[in-house]
Design a protein that fits this description.
Blueprint: E1 5-8, H1 31-42, E2 50-51, H2 59-62, H3 68-75, H4 82-89, H5 101-120, E3 126-129, H6 151-163, E4 168-172, H7 179-185, E5 191-198, E6 225-230, H8 237-255, E7 259-264, H9 281-291, E8 299-303, H10 309-324, H11 339-352, E9 398-403, E10 415-417, H12 425-429, H13 439-457, E11 461-468, H14 471-485, E12 492-497, E13 512-518, E14 530-534, H15 542-560, E15 564-570, H16 577-586, E16 595-600, H17 604-615, H18 629-642
Parallel strand pairs: 1-2, 1-3, 3-8, 4-5, 4-7, 5-6, 7-8, 9-10, 9-11, 11-16, 12-13, 12-15, 13-14, 15-16
Helix pairs in contact: 1-10, 5-6, 8-9, 8-11, 8-15, 9-10, 13-14, 15-16, 15-18, 16-17
The chain binds N-{4-[(3-aminopropyl)amino]butyl}acetamide and zinc ion.
N-{4-[(3-aminopropyl)amino]butyl}acetamide is lined by residues 24, 94, 134, 137, 145-147, 174, 176, 205, 265, 267, 304-305.
Length: 657
């Protein structure tokens, strides 16, 4: 099993700086790296990562993307005095030079390629390269926006060439448009380029018409360039997550990349003087986590921008912690995206409708003109940056508690085996759905579930799994345990995959959110807190389950913000193993990873897989099946019903006059 997170950094990349008075470049300082690295040290993260050395990129590698003339020109900066550097810089936009910048640019690219090598050869699972200069504005024959060589674009070209990759996803969450990266891949369907960026209807740098949503790629690459313009400042966690749920994630899963590269700029975070956005550092743990179930976990983050040293360093720590598999923090106050964000989401979905199956057959119209009544600017930001003490980041708990009865399976050391009382297993197994009243059996079931839950709530473990003789009875036991014994647990999300009617009378008091995925249409009541999703079994519906996950389940779950997530399913129900792994992984972004899996009638291979997902091991992509129109329609129907109550389900501006 591939494990470990690479951290690539070299102090040498702090050894260039702006030497003359040039206000547009004054924010790009060496401390961006040194302060970030110190924060990683303070939080004990450096020693938990695998240190990979940097190297200089070769000329051949630089020439994968840049012209020989450009390379030769950059080389000449090594011997220039300040006046010459200044004159040289003036041929480009918003970039400065220094005698050592060429050396650093080779190291920045070399570091990026070292990271790709380490991930692709499975020396590590994932990793981050802390580099200067950044790369995503750099073009074939032009430096631009603090960037010399385009590190991430070259990484993609390098990965295609060296590892014969056919599909690479680039997620550019920097607050500037990576126009340089866009230009390299506009007609290339093998690289899906996604960027969100402050745009303000072209008033924000680099002020390009081609940064708008209407640029979708050309020729064979049509549909593989995705621009999400932010036309207001002050965007928050909800706006960022909405774009992930309603655009990026379904697209990325449909694309099925073999490698994910993040152009990881943190000028999109709160307090940044360039971005002026309000997403909190913890949000970046979630963005990272949500991408980690793609490409079997092969994911490389490469630093781009980020100019508030405090915000930047905390964002980097959150990204690294997510990579390491630490529990991702609660995100508070997830709500509807703002109207301006909704307008962009709507427009992006409209222009991409013809290219992506998950958008097909939905009624999406273009929203052409700007919403103007939406003052984002003055909005206060809803969480401050948590300051760290040296003890801020203790080692996370052991991940998984497992309660099993009689199954002969070897548990990895990383699991905590719950030593069940010496109940003879036949006795438990005689407890069938029809005999739920059997008091003695109920008692055993409750005891066993309680011991797993106690371990979770006492943070002895992060999550747990229990084989149960009856799902509905087990869910009831969990709920009653929480109301009586765990008063810190006030919101429970239950995701039940099964066709039985949920028997407990549902009180819509918000303590329980029940999402039920069934292959039969269930009668019974729907409400804010009871969401039935009917996914017809015809054909293979795995893609339908994924679709429901992104469009409906995760958004509602993030807004609900549960303290505990419970999944309940039976092996008999024929749920696909890969889809189950995806569910198990993605749901760990909620409730700080406190997830309890209840499995009825377990098969050994199911249990093994689920345990691996609970432990945070890399998971396989879902490849088979096609997304059927019927599934899209069913999910859409629930989305329409619920979007007033669960505003994060919205993908269009709704005018209420
Ligand atoms: N007020 C990156 O974030 N414009 N580059 C600066 C200052 C250029 C940003 C204007 C911004 C370049 C990698
Ligand atoms: Zn930037």
């Amino acid at each position: 099993m591939v494990s470990g997170t690479a951290l690539i950094y070299d102090e040498e990349m702090t050894r260039y700086r702006l030497l003359w008075d040039y206000p547009v470049c004054s924010i790009e300082v060496p401390e961006r790296l040194s302060v970030s690295y110190s924060e990683l040290q303070i939080q004990g993260l450096v020693e938990r990562c695998i240190s990979v050395p940097v190297r200089e990129a070769t000329e051949e590698e630089i020439l994968l993307a840049h012209s020989q003339d450009f390379l030769e020109a950059i080389k000449t900066t090594q011997n220039m005095d300040v006046e010459q550097l200044k004159a040289f810089a003036s041929q480009f936009q918003d970039v400065y030079f220094h005698q050592n910048i060429y050396h650093c640019a080779k190291l920045a690219l070399g570091a990026t390629l070292q990271l790709v090598d380490a991930v692709m050869t499975k020396k590590v699972r994932n990793g981050i390269a802390l580099v200067r200069p950044p790369g995503h504005h750099s073009q074939h024959s032009a430096a631009n926006g603090f960037c010399i060589f385009n590190n991430v674009a070259i990484a993609a070209l390098y990965a295609k060439k060296m590892f014969d990759l056919k599909r690479i996803l680039i997620v550019d969450w920097d607050i500037h448009h990576g126009q340089g990266t866009q230009y390299f891949f506009e007609d290339d369907p093998s690289v899906l380029y996604f960027s969100w960026h402050r745009y303000e209807n072209q008033e924000f740098w680099p002020n390009l018409p081609e940064s708008d949503y209407s640029t979708v790629g050309k020729g064979k690459g049509a549909g593989f360039n995705v621009n999400v313009p932010w036309n207001k400042i002050g965007m928050q966690n909800s706006d960022y997550l909405s774009v992930f749920f309603h655009i990026l994630l379904p697209m990325a899963y449909e694309f099925n990349p073999e490698l994910v590269l993040i152009s990881a700029g943190f000028d999109s975070a709160i307090n940044d003087p360039e971005g002026k956005m309000c997403a909190t550092p913890a949000c970046f743990a979630h963005l990272t986590h949500l991408l980690m179930s793609l490409a079997e976990g092969k994911i490389c983050a490469v630093l781009e921008g980020g100019y508030d040293l405090h915000s930047l360093s905390h964002c980097i720590c959150h990204t690294v912690k997510a990579f390491l598999g630490d529990p991702v923090p609660h995100l508070l106050n997830i709500s509807s995206p703002c109207d301006s964000a909704l307008e962009s989401i709507q427009n992006v979905r409209a222009v991409h409708q013809q290219h992506w199956a998950f958008l097909r057959s939905l009624p999406i119209s273009m929203k052409h003109q700007n919403v103007n009544d939406d003052k984002k600017l003055e909005q206060f930001c809803n969480e401050e940056i948590h300051t760290s003490s040296p003890n801020y980041c203790p080692l996370p708990p052991k991940r998984t508690a497992v309660a099993l009865l009689g199954e002969k399976i070897e548990l990895p050391d990383r699991c905590l085996k719950i030593n069940l009382d010496s109940v003879p297993s036949d006795e438990i197994w005689s407890f069938k759905d029809s005999t739920v009243e059997g008091q003695k059996d109920s008692l055993h079931l409750q005891k066993n579930l309680c011991s797993v839950m106690m371990k979770i709530f006492q943070k002895e473990v992060q999550n747990g799994l229990a084989a149960v003789p009856c799902l509905l009875e087990a869910i009831k036991a969990v709920l009653s345990f929480c109301t009586t014994c765990a008063n810190s647990v006030s919101r429970i999300l239950v995701l039940y995959l099964g066709d039985k009617d949920y028997p407990v009378s549902l009180e819509d008091d918000g303590n329980l959110l029940l999402i039920q995925m069934s292959t039969k249409k269930l009668k019974g009541r729907e409400s804010k807190y009871h969401i039935p999703i009917f996914l017809p079994k015809e054909g293979n519906n795995v893609k339908g389950v994924l679709h429901a996950l992104f469009s409906l389940i995760l958004p509602v779950a993030y807004m609900y913000n549960p303290d505990l997530v419970v999944t309940a399913l039976s092996c008999q129900s024929g749920v696909d193993k890969k889809i189950l792994n995806q569910l198990t992984s993605l749901l760990q972004g909620l409730a700080e990873g406190q997830l309890l899996c209840l499995i009825h009638d377990p098969e050994v291979s199911f249990l093994e897989d689920t345990i691996c997902s609970l432990l945070g091991d890399p998971i396989l992509p879902v490849t088979d099946g096609v997304l059927q129109g019927e599934a899209i329609q069913e999910v859409e129907q629930q989305r329409q019903r619920l979007q007033e109550q669960w505003g994060i389900l919205k993908t269009q501006v709704t005018r209420t006059e």
